[in-house]
Amino acid sequence: MLNRNSRKHLHFALGMLLVISMIMSMAYMIPSQVQATGEEKTFTVGFDAEFPPYGYKDTNGEYVGFDLDLAQEVCTRNGWTLKKQPIDWDFKDKELNSGSIDCIWNGFTIDGRENDYTWSVPYVDNSQVVVVKNGSPIKTLSDLKDKIVVVQADSSALAAFTGEDASDENKALAKSFKELQQVGDYNSAFLNLESGMVDAVCLDIGVANYQISSRGDTFIMLEEKVSSEKYGIGFKKGNTALKDEVEKTLLEMVNDGKFAEIAQKWHLEDSVCLKPTKTVTQKENRTFTVGFDAEFPPYGYKDTNGEYVGFDLDLAQEVCTRNGWTLKKQPIDWDFKDKELNSGSIDCIWNGFTIDGRENDYTWSTPYVDNSQVVVVKNGSPIKTLSDLKDKIVVVQADSSALAAFTGDDASDENKALAKSFKELQQVGDYNSAFLNLESGMVDAVCLDIGVANYQISSRGDTFIMLEEKVSSEKYGIGFKKGNTELRNAVQKTLIQMKNDGKFEEIAKKWGLETSICLSENDKYLDSETESSQTTPDTYKADKLTFGEILLQLLDGVWATLLIFFLTLLFSMPLGLLLTFIRMSRFKVVQWIARIYISIMRGTPLMLQLIVVFYAPYYIFNVSLGQDYRFYAVIIGFSLNYAAYFAEIFRAGIQSVPNGQREAASVLGYTKGQTFRKIIFPQMVKHILPPVTNEIITLVKDTSLAFVLTYIEMFTIAKQIAAAQANILPLFAAGLFYYVFNMLVAFVMEKVEKRLDYYR
Known about the structure:
Elements: H1 4-29, H2 32-35, E1 42-47, E2 50-51, E3 55-57, E4 63-64, H3 66-78, E5 81-86, H4 92-98, E6 103-109, E7 118-119, E8 124-133, E9 148-152, H5 156-162, H6 168-176, E10 179-183, H7 186-195, E11 200-204, H8 205-214, E12 219-235, H9 240-256, H10 258-265, E13 287-292, E14 295-296, E15 300-302, E16 308-309, H11 311-323, E17 326-331, H12 337-342, E18 348-354, E19 363-364, E20 369-378, E21 393-397, H13 401-407, H14 413-421, E22 424-428, H15 431-439, E23 445-449, H16 450-459, E24 464-480, H17 485-501, H18 503-510, H19 537-542, H20 547-583, H21 588-603, H22 606-619, H23 629-655, H24 659-667, H25 672-702, H26 714-725, H27 729-756
Parallel strand pairs: 1-5, 1-6, 9-10, 9-11, 13-17, 13-18, 21-22, 21-23
Antiparallel strand pairs: 2-3, 3-4, 6-12, 7-12, 8-11, 8-12, 14-15, 15-16, 18-24, 19-24, 20-23, 20-24
Helix pairs in contact: 3-9, 11-17, 20-21, 20-23, 20-26, 20-27, 21-23, 22-23, 23-25, 24-25, 25-27, 26-27
């Protein structure tokens, strides 16, 4: 028994426990949006995380979907923080009533639940449909008699068959089923259907379309619909204040086109039923094609989901949304941007595109970003100022503002002198290659746009730092084809509207560029319709190179191309012969090693192999081999690749020699070595000449891949001249070289083949 003291302590402890429990319960009962302080609110959306396309977990482990995108936009416009709360669908009412979520927003059917929640206006017209396996004998709803049909628990499909408001026709149909099963999610339903455990699945048409498109041609949808319904957002009964705020924002999104944009993204544009509350001016239905460099974050690049994203692409999408246009994101080779624009395959170049130095080359928008060229070095580098770059290797992107800042006609005398002090000014095709070179110690510094520099530094941890001194400053604009002022004006007008209503700054803030924006409606265009015609033909022709001058410039790269060609042949053919012997060895282990090597070399791109050969010593073994290794990496990569192809050709040639030749040689007393040298090898050479010729011709053309390691060869120079001249003639000149050289190769190999053709 407890004494009085002990009982007092026990009563006190129980009392405290009760008080704590009451406080915790009260805190739990407070709606989540009220928990926020000041203007910052947390808007907690409850959803079924297995209900695509409305809400689900994608391959990156992120919760995504149509309804979640709508909720995010509502939060963005209201300055709230969105909390995506996956819930057990069977416990949705308990979650809502307890205050742990603010609403149920997940393809949530109003029909039959009108009095259970405070509802937003309907925003999606939905239908219940039936999905069966492709080839199933079920063609109509009546064919479901004596069949097993599966639905999600507490779903609209279940209500359509068994709910109080279910039609007599549907109730009778359900009674005809052999069984009406319930599952917790649609993934289980489709697994059951695919395995033959059930005959049909009944579900929402949006989810059905998603599941069918995601699973190939395994399933089909019946034409007849079971029922129709509307989706809304369900709030706790009586919470009209929050409902009104969300609904008001949704209508704003409908009016400015954002709602339709999100619906189109999830292929639900045909199901939207929320209509604008004001008259929307009929807009031009056109496709707006934006050309951009897909390796230029944060302005435009491919993200981890394989989508093209970026600051400029977000601006372009908003411009299209407001004008009723369809945006087409067109990645382009930056060296061919002018050809893409002038041929009409793109409408503009919108990708951190520098106006300075190009004022008369395009019809420009007004500047919208103030940009600077900066230098990035490795953290801990002795380079602290621009003057420290003397005798150092600096890398820039080909045809970039950084290159122009050092070598362009408008480059300052100070920058030209600085460039002359470098040990070397290298060019690469993209900034990822530039930073790989910098990290591996192959170059000492990278010069690039400050926005890109900030992105790269933040993305790569504390590996790099930016020098305080700037190389130059410039402005970004949107470049249209010369004279296309009509389209430029339409885009410019929309950008100004976005600036005035805050959308432009919102997008800039998303990409960390808010301090760089400079868009102003007071800016003057850099060219007008009258100015666009001021360039005279004589002035234009004076800067053009003749075909002969182009050929002379290409000679600088011809030597590099020929060097790659001859050294690759010199090393790859003996190595290929060695691989052939290993591949034909009697020792299985050795034989398999050769087979695996050949499989890898022939099964992966040569470009990838060059990158691995060049960067692997540093990134795998932490060994920096210095700048001279670049050329050696090219030769090693090419030789290893072509050796694999030659090995299989040699093996086929050896095996084509009849065994009787070996037996005859043995009878004559030849050793194995003598047999190979004097009998097998000559016949092998004769047999393999045609396929070897093909490989040699391919090698001539493959030399252009050396640029992936910033090794400048002839085709790279041709692309650079073509970009500078805005003319395709240099590429034709390069093509002429390849063709002539390959004709010589084919001629020589044909002569050799005839010399060896002893027998007809």
